[in-house]
Write a structure and sequence with these properties.
By secondary structure, the protein is α/β, with parallel strands linked by helices. The protein folds into two domains: 30-118, Leucine Dehydrogenase, chain A, domain 1 (Rossmann fold, 3-Layer(aba) Sandwich), CATH 3.40.50; 142-272, Rossmann fold. The protein has helices at 8-28, 45-61, 76-88, 107-113, 125-131, 143-154, 174-183, 198-203, 254-257, 272-290, and strands at 4-5, 35-41, 64-70, 94-97, 163-167, 187-191, 207-210, 228-231, 235-238, 246-249, 263-264. Helix 1 packs parallel to helix 10, helix 2 packs across helix 10 (272-290) and helix 6 (143-154) packs across helix 7 (174-183). It binds guanine. Residues 96-99, 121, 143-144, 172, 275 line the site of guanine (GUN). Guanine is lined by residues 96-99, 121, 143-144, 172, 275.
């Protein structure tokens, strides 16, 4: 079997087109242009790249972005006071504090300081708490896990009653992805570094979400024939043949897994573009709620 390739780039582009149209509609109706504030603390190169990508994407769909770059030795008070200013700024509809924060800063306190009305990342404890509760709905859902669900649906997966396995339990991806799958009525298993018989658990999955952060860890014999495989990993591996000296690979050994999977996301071009599209979508929704 050769897997259907789930084209995240194309699906995200469609979503971005819808956001751009929604922004223009809002502005044409005399409402304020949606605005996203990005907060980057320190000089983590990957974070700098991600934030630049988010700002560029905002510009492309007509969302205004307000970039705040703070030094790594910023104090907790300074960071929280910036968040409070942004909470009060009517031009800002979404606040994104790029994670991880430099050591010494309390991430939970910072996320807690963001107004839940502007929590377009969906990381505020109240939004996450609502995601975990039956009959409650968060104002915003974290962008990467929301993108994972959207890709599965676009690829034709039936989530209800499916045996879904999530490999990884991070706050940003694994745990919220598992919670969203529960909301979709899947039967969910969360795996991590202490899971026994990991390969066998993964091989039983109709839907396998991999967000463990280890290059090409999931091999062909971990995948059930016909399964939907979503690879959230983004790892740099040395490659002297590339100008920049490395290439990007996912957490799944793509070529071999594609021989057995029913559908699979590539890296890059799978989940990554969906994260940014989801952020734009959430920012537009926030601006609509505020207007
Ligand atoms: N770090 C890695 N992914 C994300 C994300 O989606 N949002 C934020 N704020 N930080 C991240």
């Amino acid at each position: 079997m050769t897997a259907q390739i789930i084209d995240g780039k194309a699906i995200a582009a469609e979503l971005r087109k819808d956001v751009a149209a929604g922004v223009e509609e809002l502005v044409a109706a005399g409402k304020p242009r949606p605005g996203l504030a990005t907060v980057l603390v320190g000089e983590n190169p990957a974070s700098q790249t991600y934030v630049r990508g988010k700002q560029k994407a905002c510009a492309e769909v007509g969302i205004e972005s307000f970039g705040h770059t703070l030094p790594a030795d910023t104090s907790q008070e300074e960071l929280e006071s910036l968040v409070k200013e942004l909470n009060a700024d009517p031009k800002v509809h979404g606040i994104l504090v790029q994670l991880p924060l430099p050591p010494g800063l309390d991430e939970e306190k910072v996320l807690n300081a963001i107004s839940i009305e502007k929590d377009v990342d969906g990381f505020h404890p109240i939004n996450i708490g609502r995601l975990a509760q039956k009959g409650r709905e968060p104002l915003f859902v974290p962008c990467t896990p929301a993108g994972v669900i959207k890709l599965l649906k676009k690829a034709g997966a039936t989530l209800e009653g499916a045996n879904a396995v999530v490999l990884g339990r991070s706050n940003i991806v694994g745990m919220p992805a598992a919670l969203l799958l529960v909301k979709e009525n899947a039967t969910v298993t969360i795996c991590h570094s202490r899971t026994k018989n990991l390969k066998d658990v993964c091989r039983a999955a109709d839907i396998l979400i991999v967000a463990i952060g280890r290059a090409e860890m999931v091999r062909k014999d971990w995948v059930k024939p016909g399964a939907y495989v979503i690879d959230v990993g983004m790892n740099r591996v040395d490659d002297a043949s590339k100008k920049r000296g490395y290439r990007l690979v996912g957490d799944v050994a793509y070529e071999e897994a594609a021989e057995v999977a029913g559908a699979i996301t590539p890296v890059p071009g799978g989940v990554g573009p969906m994260t940014i599209a989801g952020l734009l979508w959430n920012t537009l929704r926030s601006a609509k709620r505020a207007s």
